[in-house]
Design a protein that fits this description.
CATH architecture: 3-Layer(aba) Sandwich
Structural class: alpha/beta
Helix content: 25-40%
Largest sheet: 8 strands, mixed
Number of domains: 1
Bound molecules: guanosine-5'-triphosphate, magnesium ion
CATH class: Alpha Beta
Distance between the termini: 21 Å
Order of helices and strands: EEHEEEHEHEHEH
CATH topology: Rossmann fold
Strand content: 15-25%
């Protein structure tokens, strides 16, 4: 699948104010500064689409983007929504604000009916972090389908990336019988792009078949 057109639609402070859920939706989430907005821009071929920043805490609401895509060989596909969510675990934010964000994210994830899949971003430069494992376990408890996306792979030697990604998946195995799909990506060299877009295309097909 390729993205033909991606446009910013709206920023919503709560799930109740989100646009009508009339199409499949995919959300991107992860720790603050993990590279969510950069990954979204990479997938959409548009460096200016989602605002990126060297300082964490840039994305502060539920941001919807309208996506028009096409199959490589066959032409236009059904439109879908892509959502950029605020990062979790941003320590500098006042605790009260942080709690409000966490509640907003939890409500969105649990109540948004057209949400097909969540992409959980994990920084491939680090060893498994408790906060990320807690977050994927919460998704499991809430029965929300997700994939793991390891980010910033260009910043590491391949061996280090392999070690960190394997360690994270091994840590997940302690509580998970089956592991979700996982991807190694870089917003710089664009690795992982085709695999993620093809997975979204597959999910969109499944959603259409269920109607
Ligand atoms: P918040 O919205 O603040 O939670 O951050 P975010 O997760 O959206 O991260 P963002 O995309 O703004 O990226 C944070 C920083 O990491 C920026 O300085 C990016 O340029 C950098 N970055 C993101 N992805 C990559 C990557 O794949 N490779 C490299 N080298 N840098 C990256
Ligand atoms: Mg962001």
């Amino acid at each position: 699948m390729i993205i033909k057109k991606a446009s910013y639609l709206i920023s919503s402070p709560s799930v109740d104010l989100c646009p009508k859920g009339d199409r499949p939706e995919y959300a991107f989430i992860g720790r603050s500064n993990v590279g969510k907005s950069s990954l979204i821009n990479m997938l959409c071929n548009n460096q200016k689409l989602a605002k990126t920043s060297a300082s964490p805490g840039k994305t502060q609401a539920i941001n919807h983007f309208t996506i028009e895509s096409a199959a490589k060989e066959k032409g236009a596909l059904t439109p879908w929504y892509l959502v950029d969510l605020p990062g979790y675990g941003y320590a500098v934010t006042a605790q009260k604000t942080r709690r409000t964000w966490e509640q907003m994210i939890e409500n969105y994830l649990r109540k948004r009916e057209n949400l097909v899949n969540v992409f959980v971003l994990i920084d491939s430069r680090h060893e498994p972090q408790k906060i990320d494992l807690e977050f994927v376990n919460a998704l499991g408890e809430w029965e929300i389908p997700f994939c793991i996306v390891f980010t910033k792979a260009d910043k590491n030697k391949p061996k280090a990336t392999e070690k960190n990604t394997k360690a994270f998946l091994d840590a997940m195995r302690e509580t998970w019988q089956f592991l979700p799909p996982s991807f190694i990506t870089s917003a710089i060299d664009k690795r992982g792009k085709d695999e993620i877009l093809d997975l979204i295309q597959d999910y969109n097909k499944q959603v259409a078949a269920q109607k």
